[in-house]
Design a protein that fits this description.
Strand order of the largest sheet: 6-7-8-3-9-10
Organism: Methanoculleus taiwanensis
CATH architecture: 3-Layer(aba) Sandwich
Structural class: alpha/beta
CATH class: Alpha Beta
Number of strands: 10
Bound molecules: adenosine-5'-diphosphate, magnesium ion
Strand content: 25-35%
Order of helices and strands: EEEHEEHEHHHHEHEEEH
GO molecular function, one term: ATP binding
Oligomer: single chain
Keywords: ATP-binding, Nucleotide-binding, Transport
Protein name: ABC transporter
InterPro entries: AAA+_ATPase, ABC_transporter-like_ATP-bd, ABC_transporter-like_CS, Metal_Ion_Import_ABC, P-loop_NTPase
Number of helices: 8
């Protein structure tokens, strides 16, 4: 983090997929500070997932620079990913996946552990906290593939929280959740932002937002069409307006 609390700084970035002739996202400049709660909106194919994966160094920048947690994303992508949680948009666990919920959550610690060290007390404590926070206590010994989609989604969020990240990126985390679980998970995310974690979430669900200022970032056709803060009750109309071609 730098002096003014900036955790993510993208400076005119362009990102292309391997072998593609043109970059998918083009000329994005933005900064996100510790404790911000940011919603990334925009139509399908606009580049929202690509934006998140550019932030954590999973995709190659063809132009511009990205600094995350004070690290150069191009050169220190692995280090960045140890400090940034990323809950992916699509996942699938085969019913026969041979890992329990607890083991899946422990995988969040693997990057910090490295390949030689075995989990220690601090790792088990972080996993336990994450499991409790997401209300997964009763499911900890269940094979992950036998959980419902929503329960698996919560386990993946817990896995990323076990990492104790400075930034949490989430890609449409509410898509598998029933309304009640949505409210519960929104509450967890709000509390994380209050504790200083930057929460950056692709979402089309605008209820259950925190009371304070919400950052809205809208992508359209690979470029930034809106970047501002507003009240929670204004989010939906502003995202809607910025998502449609004028
Ligand atoms: N692995 C990939 N290889 C090539 N192009 C991709 C890949 N993933 C996404 N794209 C393209 O990048 C654009 C933006 O995709 P994406 O970031 O997934 O959009 P969104 O998340 O906003 O729906 C789309 O045109 C999509 O076809
Ligand atoms: Mg997407």
């Amino acid at each position: 983090m730098n002096g003014n609390g900036t955790l993510i700084h993208l400076d005119n970035i362009y990102t292309a997929y391997e072998g593609a002739a043109f970059p998918v996202i083009r000329g994005i400049t933005l900064s996100i500070r510790a404790g911000e709660y940011a919603i990334v909106g925009g139509p399908n194919g606009a580049g929202k997932t690509t934006l998140l994966e550019s932030m954590n160094g999973m995709l190659r920048l063809t132009h511009g620079s990205a600094t995350v947690c004070g690290l150069d994303v191009r050169r220190q992508g692995c280090e960045v990913r140890k400090r940034v949680g990323y809950v992916v948009q699509s996942f699938f666990f085969d019913p026969l996946t041979p890992f329990t919920t607890e083991q899946v959550v422990m995988m969040g610690r693997y990057g910090l552990l490295g390949c030689l060290r075995r989990p220690g007390e601090a790792d088990y404590a972080a996993v336990d906290r994450a499991i409790r926070l997401l209300g997964l206590e009763d499911l900890r010994d269940r094979p992950i593939g036998t959980l419902s989609g929503g329960q698996q989604q919560k386990a993946l969020i817990a896995q990323n929280l076990a990492k104790e990240p400075e930034i949490l990126l989430l890609d449409e985390p509410f898509s598998n959740l029933d309304l009640c679980t949505r409210d519960f998970v929104s509450g967890v995310l709000k509390d994380l932002a209050k504790k200083g974690i930057a929460v950056v979430m692709v979402s089309h669900a605008f209820d259950g937002l925190p009371d304070g200022e919400i950052r809205i970032i809208v992508m359209r056709d690979g470029t930034l069409s809106l970047d501002e803060t507003c009240r929670p009750d204004e989010v939906e109309s502003r995202v809607r307006k910025a998502s449609t071609v004028q």
